[in-house]
Specification:
The structure is a single chain. The chain is of the alpha+beta class. It folds into 2 domains: 18-142, LON domain-like (Archaeosine Trna-guanine Transglycosylase, Chain: A, domain 4, Roll), CATH 2.30.130; 149-236, no CATH class. Helices cover 38% and strands 24% of the residues. Strands 1-3-4-5-6 form a 5-stranded mixed β-barrel. β5 and β6 form a beta hairpin. α3 runs antiparallel to α4 and α3 (149-169) packs parallel to α5. It is globular and about 50 Å long. It starts with 17 loop residues before the first helix and ends in a 12-residue tail after the last helix.
């Protein structure tokens, strides 16, 4: 069953490219920040740093991946699968993804797993080293610059306020807003990006932004847009017919 997602404001910035490409060239040349990790592609998952992702692992090749990862460092690279119309070059995943480590794992009867993945950072794909039984890639770990304290503080206030207003509209309760005040800037921004009701493609756009201030500004636009959208729905609620079959 498809999940209905909200539209986003047209002002949502696309992820910058030139700066990250220069970063990758420099890192590859120096050999710093380069690691080899298994890649887990999924069609509807974008893993942000400092967030938690529960997964049920049932496919045999990925059960093997989890078993082998648990014997090593527990790191996995999540990658968003592209829709068929997004892959004219034949590449089926986005090259920037979220890296995570297995925080909890329960092996189930029959060899399946329930795992909890904790986002530790972002990566850019350099090359695949193998494709079967599951993919292993050489990747470059991407930094996430945090803004100065004054800028971060202002963004935190705006994010908490906007999310609080949205929580009130959707009756999410005071706990939703209160919990945000206890988060550091990185966790706050990425948690909101992960949970906001937008398409996976637009979450990927947010993930590809190379600094947290830009990501925060853009998710603020999304929150404000969603709030206006919901207020319009409520404003014209009285026009909804009593009989849902009526025109």
């Amino acid at each position: 069953m498809a999940t209905r997602t909200a539209s986003v404001p047209s002002g949502l910035n696309s992820a910058p490219k030139s700066r990250s490409l220069e970063l990758v060239r420099g890192e590859v040349a120096s050999g710093r920040g380069i690691v080899e990790i298994p890649i887990f592609p999924l069609p509807n998952v974008v893993l942000f740093p400092s967030t938690l992702l529960p997964l049920h692992i049932f496919e045999p090749r990925y059960r093997q991946m989890i078993s082998e990862v648990l014997d090593e460092d527990g790191k996995i690279g999540m990658a968003l699968l592209k829709q068929s119309w997004e892959q004219p070059d034949g590449e089926d995943i986005f090259h920037i993804g979220g890296m995570g480590e297995i925080a909890e794992c329960q092996e189930l009867e029959g060899g399946e797993y329930d795992i909890l993945l904790r986002g530790t950072g972002r990566y850019r794909l350099i090359e695949f080293l193998r494709h079967r039984p599951y993919r292993i890639a050489r990747v470059c770990i991407l930094p996430e610059p945090v803004p100065q304290a004054a800028e971060a503080s202002g963004l935190i206030s705006r994010l908490v306020s906007s999310f609080g207003k949205l929580s009130d509209v959707f009756s999410m309760g005071a706990d939703a807003e209160a919990g945000l005040n206890d988060l550091d800037f990185r966790t706050l921004v990425n948690s909101i990006c992960s949970s906001v009701n937008i398409s996976d493609y637009n979450k990927q756009v947010l993930l590809e932004m190379n600094d947290l201030a830009s990501r925060a500004e853009n998710v603020l636009k999304i929150l404000e847009h969603l709030l206006v959208q919901q207020q319009l729905v409520e404003r014209f609620q009285h026009l909804r017919p009593g009989d849902p079959c009526a025109n």
